[in-house]
Design a protein that fits this description.
The chain has 15 helices and 10 strands. With 404 residues, it is α+β, with helices and mostly antiparallel strands. It has a 5-stranded mixed beta sheet, covered by helices on one side. A 3-stranded antiparallel beta sheet has the order 4-10-9. The longest helix is centred in the middle third of the chain and has 32 residues, at 229-260.
Length: 404
């Protein structure tokens, strides 16, 4: 059963396969119109409620009562693997403890810190673009720029060597597994990752630096409590995954979207001042955003479009919500001048992405550098032929071949 045949009491297989790098599955619109709270079957065989309208998605994501997972929540993948199933993080998932932990982290992602970091990100992007050009064309923009830049940035913040970035990539993929790795692969990789991070934290405790982890080790939260070793390990692992995997994918998708229609690229070349609004619109327009966010609804919740019983696992499709015609005028069109732009790409409420200011900074810098350095940049293949990432919870492109 697919979403094109949906009626309220039928079950849809989820995730819904993407069409290509740019276009959303047509089922999104059908679900928003006909069945905005849909019953879906996950790869594990467990069932959940898929939310596709903006107001419903925002309401559930912003409700501080609901954590990502809890005892009794639906398993995502067939192996019982994947970040939502296997990562029983020591970080508090809701309530005051979660907010105290977030406040310790958000001090590192202020506008002031991002402004101070921006010149070094730009210098690194310039270097990577120069190296990509020197290697000749066509080139894979993902391998040459989109992958190494976010890894370098998050390694700088956490004080870990960038030379380990290939290991981080594999560990990240296993954490974000949907169907690519077996449960045994995941167990082994996560044990290696945890051991690595434990050793790194011990080294930082012995010789603190000026990085985020060193500060978390010696700092206290608003209740005067220090983070436990388990919380520090979970925090370091989570930041390494979130700090490079998602941004790497988004850089590749951003450039695919902007280059798929030459008019978009020409508009930015004519007015580079649109970079900030263009980045926000790319985040909204992303049709290949991946699985979405899970919330375990521990109490009955009344939505605009239905009721979620207590014990429901809700899958919040931010990508579909960001195409909701009730909220965004001409939602199916990319408008690089769109403002305001209240997209949900980074979530909403108490669980919204801690590092969203860093992600925005990296995306803006990449776009500024490419506009300045490679104004003739173009895709080497039609956007519909760009190969998609498969088997992971995040959406993305395996490679982005470009010419100039």
């Amino acid at each position: 059963m697919t979403a094109s045949d949906i009626v309220a009491d039928q079950v849809v297989d989820y995730p819904i396969p993407p069409v290509d790098a740019i276009e959303p599955p047509p089922e999104w619109e059908r679900l928003r119109q006909q069945c905005p709270v849909a019953h879906v079957r996950l790869p594990s065989g467990d069932e959940a409620a898929l939310l596709t309208r903006y107001d419903d998605v925002r309401q559930v994501l912003a409700d501080e009562r609901f954590a990502r997972t809890a005892e009794g929540s639906a398993r995502v993948s067939a192996e019982g693997a994947g970040v939502f199933d296997r990562r029983r993080s020591a970080v508090p998932q809701s309530g005051d403890g979660h907010q105290r932990w977030r406040r310790m982290l958000t001090k590192w992602f202020t506008a002031k810190r991002m402004a101070a970091l921006r010149p070094s990100i730009e210098a690194m992007a310039d270097q990577l673009v120069d190296e990509m050009v020197a290697s000749g064309q066509p080139a894979d923009l993902k391998a040459g720029l989109a992958f190494p830049l976010p890894v370098w940035v998050i390694c700088e913040l956490l004080g870990v060597p960038a030379s380990d970035r290939e290991r981080f990539s594999y560990w990240s993929d296993t954490f974000l597994n949907l169907s690519r790795y077996s449960a045994a692969d995941m167990e082994a990789a996560q044990a290696e990752f945890a051991a690595y991070m434990s050793g790194h934290i011990e080294a930082k405790r012995a010789e603190p630096g000026t990085d985020l982890l060193s500060e978390l080790i010696v700092g206290t939260d608003s209740a005067g409590e220090r983070l436990s070793d388990d919380v520090l390990v979970s925090t370091g692992m989570g930041l390494l995954i979130a700090g490079h995997e998602t941004t790497t994918n988004m850089i590749g998708k951003m450039m695919a979207m902007l280059l798929a229609d030459r008019g978009r690229w020409e508009q930015l070349l004519a007015d580079p001042g649109l970079v900030r609004t263009a980045v926000e619109e790319v985040l909204r327009y992303d049709a290949n955003a991946g699985f979405g966010m899970l919330r375990f609804v521990s109490e009955e919740l009344e939505l605009t479009d239905g009721v979620l019983p207590a014990g429901t696992t809700a899958v919040c499709s931010m990508a579909s919500a960001n195409r909701d015609e009730r909220v965004f005028e001409d939602a199916g069109e990319m408008d690089l001048t769109r403002s305001p732009n209240v997209h949900l790409a980074f979530g909403a409420g108490p669980h919204s992405c801690v590092g969203q200011s860093l992600a925005r900074t990296e995306l803006q810098v990449v776009l500024e550098v490419l506009l300045r350095s490679l104004p003739t940049l173009e895709l080497a293949v039609p956007s519909a032929e760009l190969p998609l990432v498969e088997g992971l919870l995040v959406g993305g492109l395996r490679e982005v071949r470009v010419m100039w």
